[in-house]
Design a protein that fits this description.
The chain is of the alpha/beta class. It is built from 14 helices and 21 strands. The structure holds NADP nicotinamide-adenine-dinucleotide phosphate. InterPro entries: Ald_DH/histidinol_DH, Ald_DH_C, Ald_DH_N, Aldehyde_DH_dom, Aldehyde_DH_Superfamily, ALDH_KGSADH.
């Protein structure tokens, strides 16, 4: 494993400041020096990416698909070396990381299938009508084209699936955009291993070398330079509201503002309707506890807010949930910074008027460092509504139970929360029919509505929407999970009265790619 940055698929010579990864469970440094990228590295990575873009965007769809499949194969081939390093750097257990590896390679293959099929370019053809009165109609053909180099900020909480070769990289490469990754400092070695796998896939696939660079930094300088660089055409980010907002501002202040797709936090309300609680208080409590504690609560879809009406079954629900939270074993958090944030934010929550601690984990492993303590706190709907601080994300295994006196208050609570990635409704059969007004409002608050299920667990598929109204993300029109994530990195271009031979294949009259196109308002995969 080499800790030099990778510039256009080649290891750069490095000098100067180096740093090491730390095992959050033990506090010990892990082997391997990683070097801070310099201004020249950023410059070279973006120059190479811009050059590579010219040919990569024209590459036949089957070759690009083959490249993504080769990346998946190379990452998979890393096997235990990758899992062990990722576990040592993140504190995440082996089983979780094996699942995440499957997700990472699976999503690369899913994007490969999507681009090999090819219809995603959304080709629309309106043929000429020279005899139309009073004016002839020109021949207009439109499709999506890649934006150019994309900067990806690896996320801390998915060292594989949302990092160097995660969903952002996979969808940008699938779209035809070169990628420059700013590695997350909490999993440097994992990033280096995956970076090396991508380099091998580039050699194997014969794609231009400038399509991939990987830069390390232990601070903000490199990330800021990447966002400000005039050759960067889009940015993706998953992390804190503060970090995301800073990058969005930088991108907007540029001479040429560019899109930043930032996922910045969500408390994922779970609405427990009265009949559902009355029918199955214990079962619901178990589901909630498992979801709160999953992965030490370090998921963007962690259920940080439970909302219920004071009704029969609530006490039993609360008592069972409290028991489960007390039994939750502590778990190593991703980094000392995330652990410190969790403790301070969780402690601040308890200082507010009306907030009571219901239960906290009694299963603390004091042999290890950065151990999360699961917590459930409780507040009335009135106090929740009067204090916006209680609406903020506490990143970790922490949830707030808001108790409303009636359904009107419960609806007020839902109206009051910020934009969310998900909202879940736990309802008994037929119960939703009583709440049509509540249901009507929910789509305005969230990107994904879940019935009788917990928010954790985001299926990677074509229909997934992982993105919601601000501030859960800054652009609710897009998703960062699933095949439509590719739309973040393209823009439409129309060709008017263009010669057929000079058109992109996707728009040529004979339809040589055999893709589905909208021709004169009819969907067809035949030629004209
Ligand atoms: P972060 O602090 O937002 O950092 C994410 C990445 O962005 C890192 O590579 C970081 O670089 C970089 N970065 C942050 N601010 C920047 C700035 N102003 N300029 C340039 N680069 C910047 O997230 P994190 O380290 O993963 O965790 C911190 C907190 O973020 C957590 O405690 C949690 O509250 C939140 N978080 C939320 C989610 C979610 O899905 N909702 C996921 C992860 C984290 P450096 O690390 O080098 O500074």
């Amino acid at each position: 494993m080499r800790g030099n940055h990778i510039i256009c698929s080649a290891y750069a010579e490095t000098a100067g400041k180096s740093f090491r990864a730390v095992n959050p469970a033990t506090g010990q440094e892990l082997a391997g020096d990683f070097y801070k990228a310099e201004v020249l590295d950023v410059e070279n990575a973006l120059k190479g990416a811009t050059l590579a873009y010219q040919s990569y965007k024209e590459l036949h769809k089957d070759l690009r698909a083959g490249f993504l499949r080769n990346i998946a194969d190379e990452i998979f081939a890393l096997g235990d070396q990758l899992i062990n390093r990722a576990s040592a750097e993140s504190g995440l257990p082996e089983a979780r990381l094996r699942g995440e590896l499957g997700r990472t390679t699976g999503q690369l293959r899913l994007f490969a299938d999507q681009i090999a099929e090819g219809s995603w370019v959304d080709a629309i053809i309106d043929t000429a009508q020279p005899d139309r009165q009073p004016l002839p109609r020109p021949d207009i053909r439109r499709m999506l084209v890649p934006l150019g180099p994309v900067v990806v900020f690896g996320a801390s909480n998915f060292p594989l699936a949302f990092s160097v070769a995660g969903g952002d990289t996979a969808s940008a490469l699938a779209a035809g955009c070169p990628v420059i990754v700013k590695a997350h400092p909490a999993h440097l070695g994992t990033s280096a291993l995956v970076g090396a796998a991508i380099v091998k896939a580039i050699e194997k696939s014969g794609v231009p070398k400038g399509v991939f660079s990987l830069l390390f930094d232990d601070g903000y300088t490199v990330g800021e330079q990447l966002v400000k660089h005039p050759y960067t055409k889009a940015v993706t980010f998953t992390g804190s509201f503060k970090g995301g907002s800073a990058l969005i501002s930088l991108a907007q202040e540029r001479a040429e503002p560019i899109p930043v797709f930032a996922e910045m936090g969500s408390i994922n309300p779970v609405i427990l309707l009265p009949q559902a609680i009355a029918n199955k208080p214990e079962e619901l409590a178990q589901q909630c506890a498992a979801s709160i504690a999953l992965g030490a609560g370090q998921f963007c879809t962690n259920p940080g807010l439970l909302i219920a009406v004071n009704s029969p079954g609530l006490e039993k629900f609360k008592a069972t949930l409290a028991d489960k939270i007390r039994e939750t074993p502590s778990a190593t958090m991703l980094s000392p910074g995330i652990y410190a944030n969790y403790n301070s934010r969780s402690a601040v929550m308890l200082k507010w008027d009306g907030v009571d601690l219901v239960a906290e984990s009694r299963q603390l492993n004091d042999q290890l460092q950065n151990q999360s303590v699961a917590r459930l706190v409780e507040v009335s709907a009135t106090d929740f509504l009067s204090n916006k601080e209680l609406h903020e994300e506490v990143f970790g295994p922490h949830s707030i139970l808001v108790i409303a006196e009636n359904m009107t208050e419960l609806e007020d609570v839902i109206h009051s929360v910020n934009g969310q990635l998900t909202i879940s409704l736990m309802a008994a059969p037929g119960e939703l029919e009583n709440y049509s007004a509540l249901l009507n409002d929910l789509t305005g608050k969230t990107g994904r509505l879940i019935l009788n299920g917990m928010p954790t667990g985001v299926e990677v598929c074509s229909a997934m929407q992982h993105g919601g109204p601000y501030p859960s993300t800054n652009d609710s029109r897009f998703t960062s999970v699933g095949t439509t994530a590719i739309h973040r990195f393209v823009r439409p271009v129309a060709w008017q009265d263009w010669e057929d031979a000079l058109l992109p294949d996707a728009l040529k009259a004979k339809n040589p790619l055999g893709i589905y196109r909208m021709v004169d308002q009819k969907l067809t995969n035949h030629g004209q």
